[in-house]
Design brief:
- The chain is built from four helices and six strands.
- By secondary structure, it is of the alpha+beta class.
- Strands 1, 2, 3, 4, 5 and 6 form a six-stranded antiparallel beta sheet that branches.
Protein backbone atom coordinates (compact mmCIF):
# COMPACT_ATOMS: atom_id res chain seq x y z
CA UNK A 1 0.00 0.00 0.00
CA UNK A 2 1.27 3.45 -0.93
CA UNK A 3 0.20 6.73 0.59
CA UNK A 4 0.85 10.41 0.23
CA UNK A 5 2.52 12.44 2.91
CA UNK A 6 0.14 13.96 5.47
CA UNK A 7 -1.61 16.87 3.77
CA UNK A 8 -2.43 19.49 6.38
CA UNK A 9 -5.64 21.46 6.16
CA UNK A 10 -6.40 24.93 7.51
CA UNK A 11 -7.58 23.42 10.83
CA UNK A 12 -4.40 21.35 11.34
CA UNK A 13 -3.57 22.75 14.77
CA UNK A 14 -7.08 22.41 16.22
CA UNK A 15 -7.51 20.31 19.36
CA UNK A 16 -10.04 17.46 19.57
CA UNK A 17 -12.54 16.11 19.58
CA UNK A 18 -12.36 15.56 15.82
CA UNK A 19 -13.99 13.40 13.16
CA UNK A 20 -12.04 10.82 11.15
CA UNK A 21 -13.24 9.46 7.82
CA UNK A 22 -11.98 6.50 5.84
CA UNK A 23 -12.99 5.92 2.23
CA UNK A 24 -12.09 2.69 0.45
CA UNK A 25 -12.95 2.38 -3.25
CA UNK A 26 -12.34 -0.89 -5.09
CA UNK A 27 -12.48 -0.30 -8.83
CA UNK A 28 -13.84 -3.00 -11.11
CA UNK A 29 -11.19 -2.49 -13.79
CA UNK A 30 -7.59 -1.35 -13.87
CA UNK A 31 -8.56 0.77 -16.90
CA UNK A 32 -10.05 3.31 -14.48
CA UNK A 33 -6.94 3.47 -12.32
CA UNK A 34 -5.16 6.41 -14.03
CA UNK A 35 -8.30 8.58 -14.09
CA UNK A 36 -9.17 7.83 -10.49
CA UNK A 37 -5.66 8.61 -9.26
CA UNK A 38 -5.59 11.85 -11.25
CA UNK A 39 -8.98 12.84 -9.82
CA UNK A 40 -7.91 12.05 -6.26
CA UNK A 41 -4.78 14.16 -6.64
CA UNK A 42 -6.81 17.09 -7.95
CA UNK A 43 -9.05 16.90 -4.87
CA UNK A 44 -5.94 16.73 -2.69
CA UNK A 45 -4.81 20.07 -4.12
CA UNK A 46 -8.04 21.64 -2.81
CA UNK A 47 -7.33 20.38 0.69
CA UNK A 48 -5.41 23.35 2.15
CA UNK A 49 -8.42 25.60 1.46
CA UNK A 50 -11.24 23.36 2.76
CA UNK A 51 -13.09 24.70 5.78
CA UNK A 52 -12.68 22.46 8.82
CA UNK A 53 -10.09 20.17 7.17
CA UNK A 54 -7.48 19.04 9.69
CA UNK A 55 -5.45 16.77 7.41
CA UNK A 56 -5.47 13.66 5.28
CA UNK A 57 -3.67 10.97 3.37
CA UNK A 58 -4.54 9.63 -0.05
CA UNK A 59 -3.67 5.96 -0.41
CA UNK A 60 -3.58 3.32 -3.12
CA UNK A 61 -3.19 -0.45 -3.18
CA UNK A 62 -2.68 -1.30 -6.87
CA UNK A 63 -2.58 -5.06 -6.29
CA UNK A 64 -6.15 -5.06 -4.98
CA UNK A 65 -7.44 -2.20 -7.24
CA UNK A 66 -8.20 -0.08 -4.13
CA UNK A 67 -7.81 3.66 -3.61
CA UNK A 68 -9.04 5.95 -0.90
CA UNK A 69 -8.45 8.58 1.71
CA UNK A 70 -8.09 8.80 5.45
CA UNK A 71 -9.08 12.29 6.54
CA UNK A 72 -9.64 14.25 9.74
CA UNK A 73 -12.15 17.06 10.17
CA UNK A 74 -13.12 19.50 12.90
CA UNK A 75 -16.67 18.18 12.76
CA UNK A 76 -19.24 16.26 10.78
CA UNK A 77 -20.60 19.43 9.15
CA UNK A 78 -17.15 20.09 7.68
CA UNK A 79 -16.98 16.56 6.25
CA UNK A 80 -20.47 16.94 4.77
CA UNK A 81 -19.40 20.25 3.25
CA UNK A 82 -16.53 18.53 1.46
CA UNK A 83 -18.80 15.78 0.15
CA UNK A 84 -20.85 18.53 -1.54
CA UNK A 85 -17.85 20.27 -3.18
CA UNK A 86 -18.64 20.33 -6.93
CA UNK A 87 -15.34 18.65 -7.93
CA UNK A 88 -16.01 15.81 -5.48
CA UNK A 89 -19.60 15.39 -6.69
CA UNK A 90 -18.44 15.23 -10.31
CA UNK A 91 -15.82 12.58 -9.57
CA UNK A 92 -18.25 10.46 -7.57
CA UNK A 93 -20.82 10.59 -10.36
CA UNK A 94 -18.24 9.56 -12.94
CA UNK A 95 -16.89 6.57 -11.00
CA UNK A 96 -19.83 5.56 -8.80
CA UNK A 97 -20.83 2.58 -10.95
CA UNK A 98 -17.30 1.49 -11.80
CA UNK A 99 -16.52 -0.04 -8.44
CA UNK A 100 -17.54 -0.46 -4.81
CA UNK A 101 -17.22 2.30 -2.24
CA UNK A 102 -17.08 1.69 1.49
CA UNK A 103 -16.71 4.41 4.05
CA UNK A 104 -16.49 4.77 7.78
CA UNK A 105 -16.66 7.84 10.01
CA UNK A 106 -15.87 8.00 13.72
CA UNK A 107 -14.97 10.49 16.45
CA UNK A 108 -11.46 10.78 17.87
CA UNK A 109 -10.43 12.62 21.01
CA UNK A 110 -7.16 13.91 19.58
CA UNK A 111 -5.05 13.74 16.46
CA UNK A 112 -2.62 10.83 16.73
CA UNK A 113 -1.52 10.23 13.14
CA UNK A 114 0.32 6.98 13.85
CA UNK A 115 -2.69 5.47 15.62
CA UNK A 116 -5.03 6.77 12.93
CA UNK A 117 -3.02 5.20 10.11
CA UNK A 118 -3.11 1.82 11.90
CA UNK A 119 -6.90 1.79 11.32
CA UNK A 120 -6.14 1.21 7.65
CA UNK A 121 -3.02 -0.88 7.95
CA UNK A 122 -2.94 -2.75 11.29
CA UNK A 123 0.49 -3.86 12.48
Amino acid sequence: MLRTRWIAGPADARPGPLVASLTDYRMNSYRDFPGIVKSARSLGRLWPELSGAVGMWLWVDPLTRRVGSLSVWQGEDDLRGFVRVPDHVQIMRKYRHRGTLRSRTWKIDELDRAALWRVLSPA
